[in-house]
Amino acid sequence: MGYRLAFVAGLAIGYVLGSRAGRERYDQIARAVRGVGESPAFQEVVGLVEAQVENGWRTVRRTVADRLPADPFSPSTEADPSLSRPSPEPAPGSVPEQAPPEAGRG
By residue range, what is the domain housing residue 9? Predict the structure, then answer.
């Protein structure tokens, strides 16, 4: 619905800006656009869209807050353990790391 409204608004603006019909046609189009914007049905749709955007934004904020640690500068990931990285396992057949030889031996 929003795409359709934006498309129609774009057509109206393009027509107004590109037309050579004069001031009378411009005033007629401007009155029609104002009438649509002030209509109760349009105001209801705007209210519904605003409510949906606000609910979506609230959900995004809550989801992000739940996944972030309480202290963003802390290296812990207590807020969501699924965010912690497992330590890498050696590849099959690879040689495990050995400690370097101590100095003075040898």
Answer: 1-38
- 44: tokens are 């209801």
Exposure of 92 by Cβ count < 10 A (0-12 exposed, 13-18 middle, 19+ buried)?
exposed
Do 16 and 32 fall into the same domain? yes
pTM of the predicted structure, to 2 decimals: 0.40
In the predicted model, is pLDDT for residue 88 greater than 60?
yes
Report the C-alpha gap between 44 and 38 in whole angstroms.
Answer: 10
Mean of the pLDDT values across residues 53-75?
83
Residue 58's SS3 state is: helix
Summarize pLDDT for 28-38 with one digit per residue, the tens.
888 998 988 88
Same domain? For 53 and 33 the reply is no
One-letter amino acid at 45 equals V
